[in-house]
Amino acid sequence: MPSASFEPEALIVGAGPAGLTAAAYLGRFRRRTLVVDAGDPRACWIPISHNMPGFPAGVAGTDILQRMRDQALEYGAEIVPGRVETLTRDGDGFTAQIGGRSIRARIALLATGVIDHHPDLPGVERAIQRSLVRICPICDGYEATDKAVAIIGHDDKGAREAAFMRTYSERVTLIHVGPASALTRHDELDRLGVELILAPIEAVSIEQDRVTALTWGGRARGFDLVYSALGTSPNAELAQAMGARLADDGRLEVDLHQGTSVPGLYAAGDVVRGLNQIAVATAEAAVAATDMHNRLRRIDGLTVSD
Ligand SMILES: Cc1cc2nc3c(=O)[nH]c(=O)nc-3n(C[C@H](O)[C@H](O)[C@H](O)COP(=O)(O)OP(=O)(O)OC[C@H]3O[C@@H](n4cnc5c(N)ncnc54)[C@H](O)[C@@H]3O)c2cc1C
């Protein structure tokens, strides 16, 4: 918890790339900033990212987070572990409940990310760390070039990801584990040369030589790697409880400055846009933090008219 004397102006919920970038910006705008984080940001699962701008040799997710955390701390942000249980309007600002304590802030940013729906495979977490099971073809499809790739899907999102992976490989297989009626793109998959397997996965073995073998209906098949296309759930409950508008996919709707439909409440990162990229999360955080600062300047009469 923050020290008793620390009264934040800005509250940031979440210390992934979005929350930490916003904290560095707000610190540099000389705003007292508190970041509260429940742990396990998605970014810490990235074995090595090859599409992070400025890192041509790649960089681990934990390294990215450490650098961003150091930068936020450098400019005075306080970063504390904890879960924001509720967030409510309180006059012009917000009150958060965190582990039995109330924290008031003038302005707030939700950078709460999403929860991945992992396939029900034994050892899936270890396999993600070894890049055998992957989540994001936009992030690391390039590294799958010419490999035998399986996509696990339960609806037409699986078909879309399989089609996307044809950018990189001619050996793409969609393993559809959902109801038969949820997959409607058979003809298009056929035209793209995507193999389709319509059977539940019965067993999986992840082998030392980075080959993933899936077995179904008594047959075994080997793939170099597997993508999960089972989707995510946005962590949007705090905003939802305040009546913020959500998009059809459950993500938060924001305006051009990342403001939600609740005045003074902003959102950035995966909880907002489906692209789910660090570069996007940090860009949104920069936009949000700048507007948060300007909003407070306007409230305090520290602006001139346009
Ligand atoms: C395996 C994997 C590989 C990836 N590879 C890449 C890649 O190569 N390149 C790329 O650009 N992207 C990659 N991504 C995506 C990238 O990790 C995300 O886009 C990025 O982490 C989003 O940042 P964020 O700050 O929005 O959310 P997150 O990083 O998920 O952080 C959200 C934080 O909010 C906290 N939180 C949530 N609710 C609360 C609450 N109520 N109170 C307090 N804290 C809360 C969570 O605990 C979490 O720490 C990958 C993702 C995964 C899973």
Short structural description:
The protein has 306 residues and is of the alpha/beta class.
Structure overview:
With 306 residues, the protein is an alpha/beta fold. The protein has 8 helices and 18 strands. Helix 1 runs parallel beside helix 2 and helix 1 packs parallel to helix 8. The longest helix has 22 residues. The mean pLDDT is 93. The structure holds flavin-adenine dinucleotide (FAD).
Topology, pairings included?
Elements: E1 10-13, H1 17-28, E2 33-37, H2 61-74, E3 78-81, E4 84-90, E5 93-98, E6 101-105, E7 107-110, E8 114-116, H3 124-129, E9 133-134, H4 137-140, E10 149-153, H5 156-165, E11 172-176, H6 186-191, E12 195-197, E13 203-206, E14 212-216, E15 219-223, E16 225-228, E17 232-234, H7 237-241, E18 265-267, H8 278-299
The chain binds flavin-adenine dinucleotide (FAD).
Flavin-adenine dinucleotide (FAD) binds at residues 13-19, 36-43, 45-46, 49, 51-52, 83-84, 111-113, 116, 128, 135-136, 139-140, 235, 238, 269-270, 276-279, 281.
| Number of separate structural domains | 2
Query: Structural class of the secondary elements?
Result: alpha/beta
Q: What's the total number of strands? A: 18
CATH top level assignment of the largest domain: Alpha Beta
Please report the number of helical segments. 8
In percent, how helical is the residue content?
25-40%
In sequence order, what are the helices and strands, one letter per element?
EHEHEEEEEEHEHEHEHEEEEEEHEH
Bound molecules: flavin-adenine dinucleotide
Strand order of the largest sheet: 3-2-1-7-18
Gap between N and C termini: 40 Å
- Largest sheet entry: 5 strands, parallel
